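Each field is set out as follows.
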Amino acid sequence: MKAQSPFRFSLRLKLALVALTLLALPWVGYQYVQEMERFLLEAQKQTLTATAQAVATALHERPQLMRLKPGENAVRQAAEDSLRQAAELAERTGMPVVVEEIGRESAMTERQSVAEINAILKGLERSTARIWVVNRELKLLALAGSLKPKAQPEDAGAARSSGRIWRDILASIWRDILSRILPRPAEDFDESLDEDVLGTGREVAHALLGAPATRLRNSADGRAMIVSAAHPIWSGDTVAGAVVVEETTHSILSVRNQALERLLLTTLVVFALTAAVLLGFATRLSHRIRRLRDEAESAVDARGRLKRLTSASQASDEIGDLSRSFSAVLAKLAQHHGYLESLAGRLSHELRTPIAVVRSSLENLRAEADAAKAQVYLERAEEGLARLSKILTRMSEASRLEQSLRTEARERFDLAAVAAECVSGYRHAYPQQGFEWLPPDQALAVEGSPDLLVQLLDKLVANAVDFSRAGEPVRIELTRERNNAQLAVINAGPPLPPEMQGRLFEAMISSRPDRGNEEPHLGLGLYIARLIAEFHGGTIVAENRAGGDGVAVTVTLPLVPG
């Protein structure tokens, strides 16, 4: 016998391993979130490119703006240079007033140009975006906006309820846990614009070559990711400069983190619920299997005797089927056990009488000196032996029939003709009994063995004759019901006892009263009839007639088409 492993791979453990397959769901969700992040980043690049194009459109065909020096100090310096040059010219030409007005007009024009470009940038400025303009010499001409979001003022005077406070505390704890798993974007980072950005930025280089471009780079301190889009500014067929619009990816990271938070929370909840459901299901399943095991162990005792039958489960699953099958097996085992017990009792009852006759005849024969009387005792002993031989023959009849059914040849024959011939023979075999034959109005072809059908009808007629009331004929009917032939043997007499309903065609079952030295009956006749009916693919039933006056035994056999 193989030793049992100390480690039990129980049903709960198996279902727990099955539940681990749910971990594929968060992985799929994470892949989806990453795809969403790439999509949002691409959408952000397109939005920034569109903004840069809008600014560049406002600056197209205005080359005077691209020649400005950056900042108001540069404008003021240009004005002072103009005034100084005008003063020197006035001393040489004697035209001071005109020169002063010209310098002032030039300074005013430059101030207006700076105000105009700043107004254009200010109109397109976004709260989390920065816009700047460079000329072909990579000189920064204007800068507007900030990459950092504006701080939202807190309403310090607003009163908070206790429920709101607790929700805020729980939310803070939850955010603290999530921050260890999902790092949040930094709000404080270095947004300064280094000269390296102007000199090495490929988006600016592409824009100055006439093609819009985007770029993804880190901030100066590496704490933020910046997306920038550049668009060329045209002056005729020449690129006069470039507009660069840049923004951090904080909004995308926030959306990504929110999606991952929901995914994590949903995964935890679904996994917990699924684990609980599977654990409960496994527990119930294990309980049902253990109960079935306990019932199986207690159904039969150590000596092989059937103690009790288990009630079949009404569940429609596989365990319910197993329980019902097990109950059916136990029922058949109980039937066989009852058959063995009844066999011993019935054999003891049937054998007791002929053995007693033989014993008494031999004893009388031993003491009898008269040859004539001795012959009588000898005949009685022979009758007892013949009765014993008949009992043994009938005991082996059922087993021989079961063996012969496996090799019995099948043929097509007319059931009506066979039944009519049998009824004719019964009138000679039972001259004291009347028979009423009701044949069908057509031939009824069945497939099987006509000899076995004759044996079946013999058993039914013998049983009907034994229980028929004197003066009442045994009626034999053969009719067609759709695709079946129904052969009924009906006798008037006592009805079936209630305890015999459904058991009449089992082995060693008989409802005959004890009639002393008459023919032995082991309760095998109707059992043999059932075997023959089943061999022909049919069924056999026994029912009390209406009013309880007699019994009708009906055999239903399938007809052969054509």
